[in-house]
Specification:
176 residues, 21% helix, binds magnesium ion, binds hypoxanthine, three-stranded antiparallel β-sheet, six-stranded mixed β-sheet, Rossmann fold, alpha/beta, binds 1-O-pyrophosphono-5-O-phosphono-alpha-D-ribofuranose
Length: 176
């Protein structure tokens, strides 16, 4: 797939994304209000970099930041099905309240892998938020704090790449 910038359509504007981050931040704040421990916020890099940054500013709760770098697309528009872990959380997460922050749940492979791996660290809870959820796959993943459900487009921008490019577009776009 080649991306012709002239054919790029806007699916979600920066304004819509920021409004969603605010709304999700409120829901998440409300959900954790009776939990006295900090939230362990985990950003799944690289794609989630911008959504993570927008969202955490809207969560009013003690929090620590953590980053994992996992990938499975390797330049194309199809998941390779194999998750490569490039870096992982170093801290002990036993009895911690983990909030996984993803940019997109597409096939569900990445988030399933992350949840399975974090469960091994015996946290007190794991909750999931994702800016985008593609409705094309029957992945059976429950997103606790869902952003936008989208049709089966390969989307780029706002952290999401095609062949590592276009992450810096200030909106989410697609090519028909
Ligand atoms: O539900 P899935 O089909 O697994 O797709 C979702 C994952 O794919 C993308 O990551 P990618 O592997 O492209 O790495 P990146 O975040 O570095 O772009 C995206 O950021 C999600 O983490
Ligand atoms: O639609 C997508 N765009 C970019 N990266 C992705 N990773 C999974 N799905 C997508
Ligand atoms: Mg990618």
């Amino acid at each position: 797939m080649d991306i012709d910038p002239k054919k790029l359509k806007v699916l979600l504007t920066e304004e819509q994304i920021l409004a969603k981050a605010k709304e999700l931040g409120k829901q998440i704040t409300e959900y954790y209000k009776n939990i006295k421990e900090e939230i362990v916020a985990v950003c799944a890099l690289k794609g989630s970099v911008h959504f993570f940054s927008d969202l955490v500013k809207n969560i009013d709760h003690d929090m620590t930041y953590h980053f994992v770098r996992v990938s499975s697309y390797h330049g194309g528009t199809e998941s390779s099905g194999k998750i490569t872990v490039n870096s992982w959380v170093k801290e002990n997460l036993e009895n911690k309240h983990i909030l996984l922050i993803e940019d997109i749940v597409d096939t569900g492979n990445t988030i399933r892998f992350l949840i399975d791996e974090f469960k091994k660290q015996k946290p007190a809870s794991i909750k999931l938020t994702s800016l985008l959820i593609k409705n094309a796959h029957d992945h059976g993943i429950h997103v606790d704090f869902p952003g936008f459900e989208i049709d089966n487009y390969f989307v780029i921008g706002y952290g999401l790449d095609y062949d590592e490019k276009y992450r810096n577009l200030p909106f989410i776009g697609y090519v028909e």
